[in-house]
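Annotated sample (chain length 261).
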Amino acid sequence: MNDNPPVLILAGGFGSRISDDSTLVPKPMLEIGGMPILWHIMKNCYAQGLDDFVILAGYKSHVIKEFFANYRLRDSDVVLDSRGADDKVIIQNGRSERWRVTVLETGLATMTGGRVKRAHSAIGDGTFFLTYGDGVADVNYADLLAFHRGHGRTATLTAVQPQGRFGILDLMGDAVPSFREKSQADVGWINGGFMVLEPPVFSLLEDDDTVLEREPMEQLAEHGELMAYRHTGYWQCMDTPRDRTMLQALWDSGTPPWRNW
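Output written by the structure step:
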């Protein structure tokens, strides 16, 4: 049993609602405290022992690739030696994380389910985490994974209660008998991402047009294979300029509630 499942992060969307900046970079690369929100998500995972990341990229994926290709240079000493026959670049005193990052090209217009389906060959048949690249939380991943393995179903999502402009989950105990995606009229528990999934979910993902949060989740709920891990701690997505400003202010305070490193 793998106690260190890979973490898939959906990072292919346009993010057109949040700001003009998102026309220049993918939404998960918009910065909080000088670092992409994608980095904040990964740092939280890494601090809890998760070190294998698969980024499901699409829009301006080269920005994500370039960030991680150059990541070790940010906080390291670099020696550029061109005295010999071959130029050498030597990184010294590197202080970056020892993680594995795979950036997958999952298509410009591919839907969420299609992006996950494209990752199947990269991660194989095993338990995996999945989350969105535009939200932070102080979720305890060990507890989430233990909850998931304790009930033995195909899928677990993290249910959160924001200040209500999204849709709801109808919960019966910890089971999710029905799933409804975002609705402006509803207030209650919502899908906050930070999911744990088993390989049978791939059979529900037909093609690039499959939206994970529609038929696949609805079928899992209908067959009793979708469970909710209730998270009552901090959670915040970055959907609007106001969200981004608030997250930046929390970072500037010195004690951002999602930071665990």
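Annotation: The two ends are 27 Å apart (CA to CA).
Annotation: The first helix runs from residue 37 to 47.
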